[in-house]
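Hi support team,

I'm opening this ticket because the web form for multi-chain structure prediction keeps timing out on my end. I have pasted the exact lines I submitted so you can reproduce it. The total is 483 residues across two entries, so I didn't expect it to be a heavy job. Is there a limit I'm missing, or should I split the entries? Thanks in advance, R.K.
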Amino acid sequence: MNAIADLMRPQRSTGRASVAIATRRGRAAIAGLHQAGSAKAMYLPGAGGPEVVFLNTSGGLTGRDRLRYALDLGSGLRATATTQTAERAYRAVGDPAHVRVRHSVGAGAHLDWLPQETILFQGARLRRETQIDLTGDATCLLLEAVVLGRAAMGERVSRLEFTDRRMISRDGVPLFAEPLRLTGEALAAGAAVLAGARAIATLVLVAPDAADRLEAARAILDEPGVRAGASAFDGKLVVRLMAGDGWPLRRQILRALAVLRPGRLPRVWQT
Amino acid sequence: MLTPAHLTLVQWLSPAFPTGAFAYSHGLEQEIASGTVHDRASLEAWLGNILRFGAGWQDAVLLCLALRAGADTRALDAHARALQPSAERLGETLDQGRAMARCVSAVGGPPVEAGPLPLVLGRAAAGLNLRRAEVAALYLQGFVTNLAVIAVRHVPLGQSEGQRVISALQPLIVELAGAAADAGPDDLANAALSADLAAMRHETMDVRIFRT
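Hello R.K., no limit was hit. The queue was backed up. Here is the completed structure from your submission:
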């Protein structure tokens, strides 16, 4: 099935979608939209702030693919950005796929960057860089979830090369840096690395009152099949989740989002 | 050829140098309590993972970056802080960094700004003009020795079993230190997610001896 999908896809796809949101007549509105190649972005207005949904129409990532998403959120606004579906990284021969996500959040604004999970298949090679630039007192919530193969389909991933650099900075100063790098060697390493987990997630809330949510976050970290922890420091709250498969991970993510992000879930996360 | 500079570095990284390293288990206390680390083999595997995939590699890269002429102290400090996975691990590197800066100058070494431990050591050792790979190897051996001693007391293990673990990890230490010597900021990488989770869960352990 994957082999057929590989054959039917063009050798290389590129996509670039960028959205700018600014205040127009007292409310959030699209100030810029650029879409090229396989990348699309949808803008959904909502009472709790707009939702921007990015989509890669190529059906997944493989060698030499290039994908870029960007959102520029104006001062004082609140928005949620996510992806339409899980991103799939398939076996890549030769050069890896490159994905670059760069969001900027204006002073006083808040961005929730809640992409759906990334599913890595056997032999995947993907380099992704996610950077959220906060200005002044801007705040954000970042979620990254990664699933190794589909356990329900009996897939076992033993070979891959995945570099996933996540960075949040404020006025150019790094606040959060997580340069995740998973290789076949790391997958086989053992107790201090994945310890058998096939699905992992990190949630980071950067806000002056982030530590106030620590107890509430810890209280819901009891989803069966998930090992979880939370810590608050340096103006951020970090939650880490590890599970044997994507479903318990997703259930725990939804419960964590309810604590870290009051209000209705983004539409694509409502299952 | 062994020089006085080598001896100075060995002194700074000696368990007798009062940086308080003995108070930090890097999440090992939680891993011993949960049974993940329970004998010599599991200790060696866990420490090997930390070295290759976790803070060992990251600290060695940071240390080598700080040893370079013209290193950007503020940018490196902010990056190293941002890399810490939990409140206690941030304390582990900052508290020991502060103590290292104080102790180095107290024994006649250069005055250096406090900050994350590997960066403080890098700033202090820059003037010793030693090879970066040598400084990184001695740093990693000190890191592993501290944790092995903790395991000997708390798993518990025989003294010589703990020392055997250190011996077994030395080829890996030399390999990683050599690679870290020429690494850049983009080579910073982490996969030791279970160890990071253990460090977080250590915060809520009922009975704790160590600060991490």
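A quick check on our side: The first helix of chain B runs from residue 4 to 12. Let us know if the file doesn't open in your viewer.
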